[in-house]
Task: structure prediction
Amino acid sequence: MIGPAAAADYPLRQVTVIVPFAPGGPTDTVARIISAQMAKSLGQKVAIENVVGAGGTLAASLASRAAADGYTLIAGHMGTHAAAVPLYPGLSYHPTRDFEPVALLAGTPIVILARKDFPPKNLEEFAAYVRANTERLNVAHAGIGSVSYVSCLVLHRQLGVKPTGVPFGGMGPAMKALIAGEVDYMCDQIVNAVPHINSGKIKAYAIAMPTRSPSLPNVPTTAEAGLPGFQARAWIAMFAPKGTPPSLVVLLNAAASHALDDRAVRDSLQALGAVIPAPEQRTPQALADLVASEIDRLTPLLWQAANATNGHDQPWK
Ligand code: MLT
Result:
């Protein structure tokens, strides 16, 4: 058992951060950059363990049942810790009841991406093409409830289409499939896409934010490109199992926040288009508030989108 003075001799061994998706995707990338820096201030290795399945909810379920001793954490996100609530009626954990929020790590704008030889030349053409060819199109996502799933679900609702979804264990493998031309398009977090857009391996139609990203200055916003109603953003954050001693949460929060102040960490994240949270957005309470407000925001939105598409809660798989 860990007592209130636990922080004095923590950590004595390796800390594990569970990433609920495959290696090489947005959650993995952000978690690795920040964990490597956290390891320096904690004085112990911080290992990443990728646990794949059920749109990230398998890993979140596992993490919610891990020992609350500060040695197992999870890099959750807008999917696992908000969207999963309305999309999985039988979810075995609840983001607010079963976790201690540690710190928000990054904001991750959503970009509409396609294989490089996808015919439409801009977002207006994309919308028309997707409407005209829905039956033939394959859209990559990382499982029901994942950010990619939710973002394209909202896009599809606006376009009034139901293309075929192709689930992957994460957007790392989905990106490989997009580059190889095995799938047609996807709605992904910017951190997974910037290098591949800039090297011309994939196409980007628009960023679903009010302003362009400094890391993708040539990619228009959805408003500029003619689809102002499609706005989508996500976030990645660190959580510990419920009951983790407050002294450890404070210490882990400080390590995460310190990592976000590190020049090299900031440069790496910003080069990938991540939005680094301001200090007041990094507190456990700010993350608790974000999770609660995201569940409130997404629940009606996802029920509406699901029902508008085919009348039940799994509009495409
Ligand atoms: C990933 O890390 O693969 C993504 O965050 C998956 C997603 O939610 O789209």
In short: The two ends are 43 Å apart (CA to CA).
